[in-house]
Each structure stands twice: as structure tokens, then as C-alpha cells.
Write a structure and sequence with these properties.
The protein is about 40% helix and about 20% strand. The protein has about 400 residues and is α/β, with parallel strands linked by helices. It is globular.
């Protein structure tokens, strides 16, 4: 089927909640995607930080194929080995965590965190302790609870009234959080590195101060690592360099190796208040996806793999800094590991995204003036050089 026919079918039958470029992607190999016309694209979007191991990883494919032939789905009414093994490995690799709840997406992981935090507060404190503190620039999802924690008027306004009891502090401003964290707050949710908010790392003093405030005031601290977790920043968890641990952490994007999976990790204090029936998901911890996730977790958590991510991130940062010095429209480079932003003085980098794609590089936005780069974690020097050369050429014609 040719691209034009696919676009026609899409226009007729798909509810359009996305704006898409005209090409139709057909297959992927390594760090490249190919459209129906055979054109190759160096993928620095990675399915929005999902395809950490690129496309066609043989170990993931083998795990999926083997498990598919055994058992595809039975629901959480029954035990399966892949779920138990994946939970064990996640807990063993996450110092604060004691239990895992599996779901199907990042937004679902956040919804679970909201429910778990509220029940913890009601059981251990009072029925009035139901509020949340979130931060400017945050993105936690588009379902109704997660949306209330995502302060974007163009996302929120069409769907008001939102879940009540959410207060908004300023990211990286500890005093603003201190003013809002009170006796009615059950939890504070924060991204150690904001993704959709423009690739903004938290200041160490900010996260450390939040942990101290939450401990002093009987409040849970939730880290949303849906985009920045699982190796993306060069450590397994984005919060590791801060020396701070949360009470709850949300994961998703790369965990399933391209298949839909989310997870909410909790400490024992939270786990103790959750009972059968408090939360559930029909499709969560599907044995096929868990089998893929076991491969993903093993590979990404390998120290040599994470060392490569750090090296690649440093190499990319150096190249982006050289572009910043060369091109006046780039006013800041920020990020860590293999999540980076080029902050520009342009009203909208949308045309740059299109020009990059025409030149064979897939990028995406993180706010109108910000170009975001989230390549597969397996990216090599030649791929980084190719991307930097394309970006250089595109910015030269702005």
C-alpha cells in the first residue's frame, strides 16, 4: 500500500489527535527508520524516548517470539513467571522500592501513584490529607488525574473541571514548594529531569530540599521517571546522582522495549496500605511484554552500557555546544546523558523539525522554541556526527 493511500485511510478513519509529517514509516533497523519510499531517517526521537535499544534488537525479538508461543495473556487473576521475575529485578535494582504495580503507560503509572498516595495519607494521617503539589513545566500525562498535575492551559482548559486539590509550585524553586507543602498535602510529584517541559534537570539542592521538606511534614515524594528513567540520563535512574530517593516512582516508555508497559514502584510504607481491589488493570504485566522488559532491564542496567550512554551524551553535548557557539538562534544547550534540548530564540521550531526530517534526521519539540533530541541509547559516534552535521546545515539556513 502506498503512502498516499495510507494517508487517505488515516484521514477518513483515525481520530486526529496528532499532527503528522507526510511520510509513512514502514520499518526500523538499529537507529534508523525507513519510510514506504525507502528513505532512511536517523531517529533522534526514539518513539519519544521509548526505543532505547533501537529497532530490531535480536534478544528482544527472541524473548517476544518465545513467550508468544507459550502464553500471550491471562490477566492478573493468575500468576505468571515473567511478571514475578520482572518485579524482582526492578525492586533489586531500585534501592528504595519494595513492591511494583504494573500498568500499560506512563499516564497510568501516574494515576496509580495518585491513588496509592491518597490511600496512604488517609490510612496513616487523615481523610483531609488529599492534596498534591506539582511544578511548573511538568508533564505527567493526559488522563484526568495526571492532567491535573500537568500545568499546560492548552491541555487542561478543554477538560475542566479537573481533579481538585492540586497546587502548583515553581520548578527548581524550593521556597515556592515550601510555601505549599502543608498538612493537607499527601504527595509532591516531580521529574528529576523535565522532558516535555524543555529538558530541564533539577538542581541538586532542589531535590534534596524537597526530600527534607516531605520527611519533616509527613508527605510522600513521587519521582516521575517515565521519560528520564531507565538509562536515559546515563544512570539507571535519573535521580541517582542527587543522592535522594523517592517513596514512589513512575516508569514507562522504554520499559517494554516498544510494547506498552508502565510501572509504579513503591516503598514498604506505601505498599502496606494497598489491598486487593484497590487498583487493577486487565492487560498489565502481560507475559509477552514482561519477557521483553526483562531483556530491556538487563541490557540497560549493565554498567558498560550505562558508561556508553554517558560517553555518547558527553560527545553529543560537546557537538551541540559547538553549534550553540556557531549559530545565533541557539541560545542554550541543556540536558544529560542522551536527552538534550536546543533552546532557540525562534517562536516555533516546528519548521526546523520538518527541515531536519527532509534531511534525514527525526527530532521533536519540547515547547515551541525548543528542539529535543532523544536518540536510542545504542547510538554510536558516526550517528552522532551525522545528526550534528544535519543540525548544522539546518540552522545555517534559519
Amino acid at each position: 500500500m502506498n503512502a498516499q493511500k495510507i494517508r487517505e485511510l488515516d484521514a477518513k478513519y483515525v481520530l486526529h489527535t496528532y499532527t503528522r509529517p507526510p511520510f509513512v514509516l514502514e520499518r526500523g533497523e538499529g537507529v534508523y527508520l525507513y519510510d514506504t519510499e525507502g528513505k532512511a531517517y536517523l531517529d533522534f526521537v526514539s518513539g519519544i524516548a521509548v526505543n532505547a535499544l533501537g529497532y530490531g534488537d535480536p534478544d528482544i525479538l527472541d524473548a517476544i517470539g518465545e513467550q508468544t508461543r507459550k502464553l500471550m495473556h491471562v490477566s492478573n487473576l493468575y500468576y505468571t513467571a515473567p511478571q514475578a521475575l520482572l518485579a524482582q529485578k526492578l525492586v533489586e535494582k531500585t534501592p528504595f522500592a519494595d513492591k511494583v504495580f504494573f500498568c500499560n503507560s506512563g499516564a497510568e503509572a501516574v494515576e496509580a501513584a495518585i491513588k496509592f498516595a491518597r490511600k496512604w495519607a488517609k490510612v496513616t494521617h487523615s481523610a483531609e490529607k488529599i492534596e498534591f503539589v506539582a511544578f511548573s513545566g511538568a508533564f505527567h500525562g493526559r488522563t484526568m488525574g495526571a492532567l491535573a498535575l500537568t500545568p499546560r492551559p492548552h491541555y487542561q482548559d478543554p477538560f475542566r473541571p479537573l481533579m481538585p486539590g492540586v497546587k502548583l509550585a515553581i520548578y527548581n524553586d524550593l521556597s515556592s514548594a515550601a510555601d505549599l507543602l502543608d498538612e493537607k498535602t499527601c504527595a509532591c510529584i516531580v521529574e528529576p529531569v523535565q522532558g516535555e517541559g524543555g529538558v530541564v534537570p533539577a538542581d541538586p539542592e532542589f531535590l534534596q530540599g524537597l526530600r527534607k521538606l516531605c520527611d519533616e511534614r509527613g508527605i510522600l515524594l513521587i519521582f516521575d521517571e517515565v521519560q528520564c528513567g531507565l538509562g536515559r540520563t546515563g544512570t539507571l535512574w535519573a535521580h541517582e546522582p542527587y543522592g535522594v530517593m523517592p517513596d514512589i516512582m513512575t516508569l514507562a516508555k522504554p520499559l517494554g522495549g516498544g510494547l506498552p508497559m508502565g510501572a509504579t514502584l513503591v516503598n514498604q510504607a506505601v505498599a502496606e496500605v494497598i489491598s486487593p481491589g484497590d487498583h487493577a488493570s486487565t492487560f498489565a504485566a502481560n507475559p509477552v511484554i514482561c519477557s521483553a522488559a526483562l531483556v530491556v532491564l538487563d541490557k540497560i542496567s549493565d554498567p558498560a552500557f550505562l558508561e556508553h550512554v554517558r560517553w555518547a551524551g558527553q560527545y553529543l553535548q560537546k557537538g551541540l555546544k559547538e553549534l550553540e557557539e556557531k549559530h545565533a538562534h541557539i541560545i542554550q544547550v541543556r540536558g544529560r546523558g542522551l536527552i538534550w534540548a536546543l533552546v532557540t530564540d525562534l517562536e516555533d521550531v516546528g519548521p526546523l523539525v520538518e527541515q531536519c526530517a527532509e534531511a534525514g534526521l527525526l527530532t521533536c519539540k519540547a515547547g515551541n522554541p525548543i528542539l529535543r533530541l532523544v536518540p536510542p541509547l545504542i547510538v554510536q559516534k558516526e550517528h552522532l556526527d551525522e545528526a550534528l552535521n544535519i543540525l548544522d546545515g539546518v540552522f545555517a539556513h534559519v
